[in-house]
User: Fold this.
Amino acid sequence: LLWWNAHRVPFTSGWWNAPFFFPLGGTLALSETLLGLSILTTPLLHLGASPLVAHNVVYLLSFPLSGLAMHLLVFELGARRDVALVAGLAFAFAPYWAAHLAHLQVLCAFWIPLVFLGLHRFLRTGRLRCLVLAAAAWMLQGLTSGYLFLFLTVLVAAWAAWFVVPGRRWRALASITVAWGAATLVPLLLFVQYGRWHSELGFERLTREIESLSADLVGFVSPPAALANWAFDTGLHAESQVFPGI
Assistant:
C-alpha cells in the first residue's frame, strides 16, 4: 500500500485498481489506503528505501511521534515540561496500542494531538496558521484511518461544546467549522469512492457483524495479550480490548 501510493496518482481509477486479487477491480477499497502516511513514506521510497524499510521506519516512528505530539499539546495547556513528558509517554505507549500492533493506521494516531494543539492555540492567539495546523492534521488523520477520523470528529464536537460554546465565541466556532469543512473534503472524496466500490463489489455490513466487532464494558478491563505485564485472557477480540492502563 505504501509503495503503491508512492507510484500512482491518488483517487484515479488506476490507483483504486491496485495490483492484487487480479482481475478484481477496486481492490484498494478492501483496506485503509494509508494515504495520510505518504508524506513520510513516499520520500523514503523515492530515495531508494524498500517498502519494508519505509513501513518499519514509520512503524517505529509512530511511538515517539505520538509522544511528541501529546507532549506539545499538554505543554500548550499550561503543564510543566516534566508533566508534559509523562503525558506524552502515557499516550505513546498506551496499552490500547498493543492490541493493534499489526495495524499501522491505528498506531499512527499522532495527528490527533496536533488537531487539538492547533485548536487550543487558535483560541489563545487567533492566528490562522494554528487553524491551518488543526485542519491539516485532521485531514491527514482521515487519510490514515477512517475509523479514527470519525471518532476524532465526535471528540472535536465535544471539545467545541466545552471550550468554545460556553464562552459564546461564535466567530471562533464559525472559523473552526469552516476549517473542519475544508479538512473533510479530501477524506470525504475517499469515503464516497469506498462506498461506490463496496456497492459494486456487493459488500455490506450486517448488524450482527457490527455488534460482534464492537467494544463492550468488559473491554475496559481486558488488556491485550501482547502486553508484558498486564496481559490476561478474557476471550475478547482485539477490537474489544480498550484497556486504558492505570
Q: What stands out?
A: Residues 10 and 16 are 8 Å apart (CA to CA). The chain is about 60% helix and 0% strand.
